[in-house]
Specification:
eleven-stranded mixed beta sheet; 15 helices; protein biosynthesis; ATP-binding; Amidase_dom
């Protein structure tokens, strides 16, 4: 029989519909692959019993002709989504033992469409990081390695466990969350497709909050079509989230026509950074050529406030985090460290419960919101954010989509940037502007670095125009024909 773990979601759905194999067989193959990939540390909690039970129910539904969009598909759930009766940690010590009594809307939508949960995927603590080196549960390992080099590489972050599980064929797909690039950057590092929908397309209800005005759930898959299928299952209006937008969810798969003739693709000059690696520039140029060959019109555009995006993001996101994470005080959730009095208990719990990167961002955010500095930092950053969004609005009057690199480099080794927060934050230089503007974005694997590591190209589109996003990404995927996979060294 074909190795079921190597199928795409689309192919697996076709195979189950044709009766070639069952959801139980598909799930069993992925449970075996998940157990064989322990060295990657992609999962914090594994749920094989839940997976088998869900797969059995899926087979019964399919037999009755009641299969959903994702019926029988084994996926990894980023451990930032609250899952009823299953440990939810946000990769933080401070949420020790937290088992929600409710289900996040996005995970609930996926279960309603028949998806099967293999387990909860590791991540940077509270989604704060670009390398998956800040998890309380240890580093996640990228299945990719440099050619001729056995040193472990980071999978990107914060959705590193999700990316690693999909790239290592341990999960067929995974959920991620993207605040400043946490789906797209790890997708680029792991050679998979990572898609961030428009802010408001997927409900945030039941997702452990990092920065509420930026957080957005999205799919991580091995093809653009799989991404369209999974987003269809995840998206929809949710009255429990005040930022959820009440509008119909289009048929995203139908947008994959393969025809972008006449579409206008914008190339922002401000994304050509000083010192950009030649292989990143070469890949971008290649992507432009692919778009031209497919009949698109290439138009140079300007996004003049791009250079202010990272500084503004690293004021806004930590400020919102400092507010959101104030609830973790040893009283209502997880860890509690006793003290001499209530204030001492608060301080001791937070000191022991949060890791260094989370503490760094909480201090920055609290400072930015403090009396006397709110106007100078937070308010000014919000004004900059409006300017950046206006840049995109202006650009989208002339173009239908924008093409850029996803990240300024391929994956790097552990410890290479962890001592330099500014170098780490620069990983998100191409993804943060779109996040601040609330735009949909997708990273598609498009080539290999000189070291044999995957590189991605990013497509951005207008708000709630995911159909154009998928259409362009599908053409990019076909042109790139990225078929490389990592050597499966982790299986021993």
């Amino acid at each position: 029989m074909t190795d079921l773990t190597k199928l795409t979601v689309s192919a697996a759905l076709d195979g189950m519909a044709a009766g070639d194999f069952s959801a139980r067989e598909l799930t069993a193959a992925h449970i075996t692959a998940m157990e064989a990939s322990n060295v990657l540390n992609a999962f914090i909690t594994k749920t094989p019993e839940i997976a088998v039970e869900a797969a059995t129910a899926s087979d019964a539904r399919r037999a009755k002709g009641e299969a959903g969009l994702m019926d029988g598909i084994p996926i990894a759930m980023k451990d930032l989504f609250c899952t009823e009766g299953v440990l939810t940690t946000a990769a933080s010590h401070i949420l020790d033992g937290f088992t929600p009594k409710y289900e996040s809307t996005v995970s609930g939508n996926l279960w309603a469409e028949g998806a099967v949960m293999l387990g909860k995927a590791n991540l940077d603590e509270f989604a704060m990081g670009s390398s998956n080196e800040t998890s309380f549960y240890g580093n996640v390992i990228n299945p990719w390695r440099r050619t001729g080099d056995d040193h472990a590489m980071v999978p990107g972050g914060s959705s590193g466990g999700s990316a690693s599980s999909v790239a290592s064929f341990s999960a067929m797909a995974a959920t991620g969350t993207d605040t400043g690039g946490s789906i797209r950057q790890p997708a680029s590092f792991a050679g998979i497709v990572g898609m961030k929908p428009t802010y408001g397309r997927c409900s945030r209800w039941g997702i452990v909050a990092f920065a509420s005005s930026l957080d957005q759930a999205g799919p991580m898959t091995r093809s653009v079509r799989d991404s369209a299928i999974m987003l269809q299952a995840m998206a929809g209006f949710d009255p429990k989230d005040s930022t959820s937008v009440d509008m119909p969810v289009p048929d995203f798969q139908a947008a994959l026509s393969g025809d972008i003739r006449g579409l206008r693709i914008g190339i922002p000059k401000e994304y050509q950074l000083d010192g950009m690696k030649p292989e990143i520039q070469a890949l971008w140029d290649q992507g432009i050529d692919w778009m031209k060959a497919a009949g698109a019109d290439i138009i140079d555009i300007s996004l003049p406030n791009t250079k202010y995006a990272l500084p503004a993001y690293y004021i806004i996101a930590p400020a919102e985090a400092s507010s959101n994470l104030a609830r973790y005080d040893g009283v209502r959730f997880g860890l509690r460290v006793e003290g001499e009095d209530l204030n001492d208990m608060y301080a001791s719990t937070r000191a022991e419960g949060f890791g260094d990167e989370v503490k760094r961002r909480l201090l920055i955010g609290t400072y930015a919101l403090s009396a006397g500095y709110y106007d100078a930092y937070y308010l000014k950053a919000q004004k900059v954010r409006t300017r950046i969004a206006d840049d995109f609005k202006q650009a989208f009057q002339d173009v239908d989509a924008i093409l850029t690199p996803t990240a300024p480099s391929a994956a790097f080794g552990f410890g290479e940037k962890s001592d330099d927060p500014l170098a780490m934050y620069l990983n998100d230089v191409f993804t943060v502007p779109g996040s601040l503007a609330g735009l949909p974005g997708i990273s598609v694997p498009a080539g290999l670095s000189a070291d044999g590591l995957p590189l991605g190209l990013q497509v951005l589109a207008k708000p709630f125009d995911e159909e154009t996003l998928f259409k362009v990404a599908g053409v990019l995927e076909t042109a790139a024909d990225f078929t490389a996979t990592p050597d499966d060294w982790w299986r021993g």
